[in-house]
């Protein structure tokens, strides 16, 4: 290792520490659930995307027992080199039917799906209109596409219309790219209006349903389904409500064929392990039948929002299972996470570049297998922390205000991580 490189990187890491932006990997022992063992400490966990609680679901685990025996551990190479497994074909057919599209294609992660999709679809002759708070994978895929990328203020459908009205004529093709439920704010895209705008200007609507899949719509089909909207391209992840790992893109047969030829994160990656493809198949009927679990998540989230707002705190995410508690300052958000951990509750602080400057937050995510008592325990821990009281004391959450707000700057500067 170059001594100069090491010294420069250490100096930059020290700067991040002073700014409250240093990251530390925490070690979880055992399976994810309402409680887990974090760095040796038993904690109540409210910082997971395991929305329906299927990451440790006995019925799902028992259904997968035979896959290792019949298919082995790995897929050996990329699907264009060593061949597509039958379990890949079966999972993709089922996911396509579920999403309401002709075909689907499995990817190793949601990041790989979005990067590969947009890199493959966009060219220098095309236009991509992207929401300012889109996930880093959508941002990076747009950049890699070589298309002309215009970033619109968050949730501003009027700005999307203005861009297409002024620039659509000079582009061969146009794509409007959005998350369905935004991962850090928990708010919903106005897919009905975006669909109407796309139809007016002959643009394709690309919707990342990662945080709506399993949670909204008929049988958990997502926000587009809940609103009666059809996306031209549908992206879903299997590591959240489905409890596994990986992702898929669903669209027309022609789009999927093109991705097989040109999506670099598909072409040049080892295929999804057979047990993960099988887990998607096994989870699908459980997700479709999980209306009670969906209601439980949303009930918990609404209860948290109501309690926090009643005490003067700024929260968002209405209509989703994501409850962002806006703190503002990065160091203050980290201190709040640490104070909650001391009380046996884990809620991760989310800081720039994942969220815009001045909007650091706790991203609270209840899951279906939390109880009402678990939610109350989180509220009690927050009460103690914000009032500066010792663990176990009683009293309401302090009525102070949390500073910071939703970013509307039209630029893509976000990264990944907490």
Number of distinct helices = 16
Largest sheet: 7 strands, mixed
Kindly report how far apart the N and C termini lie: 27 Å
Radius of gyration: 22 Å
Biggest β-sheet: strands ordered side by side in the sheet: 4-10-9-8-7-5-6
Beta strand count: 14
Going by helix content, strand content and strand pairing, the class is alpha/beta
Overall description:
- The chain is α/β, with parallel strands linked by helices and about 425 residues long.
- Helix content is about 40%, strand content about 15%.
- The protein is built from 16 helices and 14 strands.
- The chain has helices spanning about 5-20, 60-65, 65-70, 80, 85-100, 110-120, 135-145, 155-165, 190-200, 225, 255-260, 265, 275-290, 290-310, 330-340, 370-385; strands at about 30, 35-40, 40-45, 105, 125-130, 150, 175-180, 205-210, 235, 245-250, 325-330, 345, 350, 360-365.
- Helix 5 packs parallel to helix 13, helix 6 (about 110-120) runs parallel beside helix 7 (about 135-145) and helix 6 packs across helix 11 (about 255-260).
- It is globular, with a radius of gyration of 22 Å.
